[in-house]
Amino acid sequence: MQALDSAPKARPLMHGAGWRDRWLAHRDALLASPRFRRWAAAFPFTRGTAQRRARALFDLVAGFVYSQVLLACVRLRVFDVLAEGPQDVPALAVRLGLTEEAVERLLDAAVSLGLAERRRGGRYGLGPLGAPMVGNAALAAMVEHHAALYADLADPVALLRGDDHRAGCLSRYWSYAATATPGAAGAADVADYSALMAASQPLVAEQILDAYPLARHHCLLDVGGGEGAFLAQAAQRAPQLRLMLFDLPAVASRARERLAAQGLSERSVVAGGDFRVDPLPTGADIATLIRVVHDHDDAQALALLKAVRRALPAHGCLLLAEPMAGTPGQEPMGDAYFGFYLLAMGQGRPRTAVRLTQMLEAAGFVRIRVLSTRMPLQTSLILARPGVSGPPADML
Fold it and tell me: Pairing relation of β-strands 286-290 and 317-322?
């Protein structure tokens, strides 16, 4: 009992606090105490927990360095090179254009992160986290894209205070969306962001199409569908499905070219416009909003949902797909990653499934339910059907 007696005593608690508040205050006082942390690191029954928490905190401190190791591997095509088979340092130095010392430093770092593994004879091979990167253009595009995000996060306090956030690197990808007339954006204004969304679409398209088969529908309207990457994958899964896409005129032009290049012109109708002033095309019995709603603030997001409801027939449905805050086991993805990503973008916010359900109800949708996906880290799904009578008047 002497070891326990050596632990510091928590400060007195406020009267009237609930039992959970009292326990959390007691815990916080202990964890904030250097004396307690030394004791916990030495005591056999708490040593493992202390070490795991120290590692977790260090990972937060070092996270940017880890991400830059990944970026270096992507830019040097390390994963594609190692996919050819384990290689030694001299061979890698030639392939990567680095000195042998630099190769060892990079590959040792990659090994520590699970991106690579040491093999016999001093060679390096793919690691369990590096193997999925092989030929993964979607994930590689996101890794490259984060250079802009990290530049904006160099001063996170300034970002939170709104100090000239529209001048940031990331906001320039979507600068047209914050203007009064986004429909007037030209081809150059939409090129970078549209290309990025198209490149990263395979990360979520398979999850959506596996969770909700489209074969039961005859026509799909993808609202904010970008260059048509999702429609192209949906067309492969459901050969009988007719395709419709709505996006800003400059983006819609890119979609027509992409769909034509894939031989889908005869099956598809592409419309350009601004949902805030232009009606969405009708005739589809299912509409999709894929990584669109969280890009908008509440008022615009609600207006978008109402526009989709007006475009759907009574027997139609909406499939809303995006990474959602509060996803069990994936909480940092929603509030930490997308919370700050969208802040840097200049508008939008991550929302929980509960909040999205409330917004769907306010827009006139009913029979709303969450669908499971195999990788909720990448996307979650909500299925909703338009109410017959529409939303109450006070919600319009």
Answer: parallel
**String of DSSP letters for 298-342:** HHHHHHHHHHHHHHS-TT-EEEEEE--BT-TT-HIIIIIIIHHHH
| 114-162 residue pLDDT tens | 999 999 999 999 999 999 999 988 889 889 999 889 988 999 998 898 8
CB contact at 8 A, 225 and 289: no
Taking the alpha carbons of 52, 57, 63, 69 in that order, is the dihedral positive or negative?
negative
Distance CA 213, CA 264 (A): 20
Rounded mean pLDDT, 253-261 = 94
How many whole angstroms separate alpha carbon 135 and alpha carbon 132?
8
Q: How far is CA 352 from CA 204, 296, 336, in A?
A: 18, 14, 13
pTM: 0.81
Q: ∠42-59-105 over CA atoms, to 5°?
A: 110
pLDDT at residue 249 is higher than 70 = yes
Which of 313, 346, 285, 312 has the alpha carbon at shortest distance from 152?
Answer: 346
